[in-house]
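Wait, mind explaining this?

_____
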Amino acid sequence: MSLPATATPLAHRPIEIAQETPFYVATTGIGSRPQCSLKYDDTFLVIDNHGDIGASEGGPDGLFHNDTRYLSRLELTINDFEPLLLGCNVRDDNSVLTVDLTNPDLYRDKKIVLHKDTLHILRTTFLWRGTAFQRIGIRNHGSHPVPLRLALRFDSDFADLFEVRGLKRERRGTATRTLVQGRQVMLNYHGLDAVTRRSAILFDPPPMKLNAGEASYECELAPGEITRIFVAVGCDTLEDIKTPFSRALIGAHRERRAVAADMATVESSNVLLNEVLCRSAADLAMLLTETPHGRYPYAGIPWYSTTFGRDGIITALQMLWFDPKVARGVLRRLAHFQAKTVDPAADAQPGKILHEMRAGEMAALGEVPFRLYYGTVDATPLYVVLAGAYLDRTGDLTTIKELWSSIEAALNWIDRYGDMDGDGFLEYRRATDQGLANQGWKDSFDAIFRADGSLVEGDVALAEVQGYVFAAKRAAARCARRMGLEARAAKLEQQADELARRFEDAFWCPELRSYALALDGDKKPCRVQASNAGQVLFSGIASPERAAMVADTLLGPQFFSGWGIRTVAKGAARYNPMSYHNGSVWPHDNALIALGFARYGLKSAVTQLFKGLFDAATYMELLRLPELFCGFKRQPSRGPTLYPVACSPQAWASATPFTLIEAALGLEFDPVNREIRLRNPRLPEFIDDVLLRNLQLGDACADLRIRRVKGEVALDIVRTRGKMQVSIVLSA
């Protein structure tokens, strides 16, 4: 094929040099087998649908603890064959993975010696207290005895999570292995950070042969006979691996139930929606992690199973209506790690809220800057927003008084360090050439750009971040007024009003019918249609007239894919429906936008988003909304296109269905007047009624049913305990 006369040969065309930070999750291929995830506090397991680890190249599978992979291989063979998959199921509460396998046809000297489907192999796996437990049961369903040789190959590379993500290291620590009493192997790694990490692997019964990489058993299985083998892998623990399988399983179930016990629940007339909600609730319960400061929602598996400031805050905001205790844990933990000094390497200044923390070897050595890393511009105002929302939801003034110095420190950071040029807007610029170049929620290197596609430089003011500051000042004012600090409250309200006026003047772009994505380092608006404008509505900083125009724009064909609102409008310079932040669909982004629509009374827009995301969830594995998916236009009889390295589950994606319920029903809580209100409630067309159980307000509780009756919404108070009122509020 010849090139057109005007074409430039490919080899000579200029290309854009990738500027992505080295902390990017590399997409070089994925494992050939589908993978499942389990988590218990700071330990998580990514395992394939055969119950193996490491059987296929390229996947992020393994047993991870504190950002380190403690087990990189666990493969089962029987009579030297790889079992055939029958089925794989994760228990509804995410506590247990069960895998059903069988044997293929086995031949010897061209004659069949074992027919397929003779052996049933059942692998049951769960996590509890830093230990992975697996039971392997084998039953002979044939009419003749079957000689068996079972082998389990195991290994640990003790790779830092960032190595698993694709980073290369010039030096690593040293590994050693020891056998203990013929049934236990210790895999040890002496890191360059002077920390020794240990994987203790226990086999029960003791294998006939055991070395540093394989355990094997031999027996003859009579017709109908079953044999079982138990494997426990402990991460830096030697005691819990000795707990019997059944006792550990009971403990895991009991503790999982305790996490979800106080949550409100939702049941609707739509059976499929109920399944989506059950999966979301189970994912949130799994991601909630016990910390010294309370339960904290870790961001996602596999890449973000740790404390993230922004993710934890937004997830807590989404969960606030049905489990407000999560917000208290988030606030206390982030207050504890709030920056106290100026530290350019960590991008920290006094009062700033944490972006991310890591416990692995590379973070300890400074090979990645995330041991305690503060490179986020939005977590600090969102922290204050959460504090105010928590008080509004619970009336818990004691906790707010406990946190007030931290709240004031965050406000001081916003005004002093976050606005270095004094123009009244909150901006970011990374303190060193390490860390994240972009520090809003869209933090990939190419996410913030001008209309011509050029990337921004200098001090960048994001549109939604100014909204967060507005909401933070309003939230802090409400807190101050509850504490009797009237002068402080009045000043904060004045600052919020002034910011709103400046924001409208600087960010509104009439030709876009939307707000600019950002102001660049020269204070010029980036005239790009982006979903950030929807989160402007979430904060309440937009005028009602412009909010309606933004909503109309976001629901137009350039933005709305049929599944949800894209991060960037189709036609923008860097639009790419397969990108991380420039054309994809993020469920949590849509959830916050839905709350923004509800704030301005745009309930038809809320139900449109609800329908799109619900439909998307029905196509997803386990009915689980992932971190993001591609922004291609919805096609008939086809589901959404997946994004290859999206976390699933991801906390704020898991919370999204509940946020959509909140936005549609207009749920409001008034602990001072002991009242629950439904403001302009609207049920989407695929729901006829919804039952909310265990809605708590102080020491009172209610079960409410909301029904569609002749096109209107009716409220039934099914049950109440304690003193409270429930009402529907219809407003223009």
User: Anything to note?
Assistant: Confidence is low (pLDDT under 50) at residues 1-18.
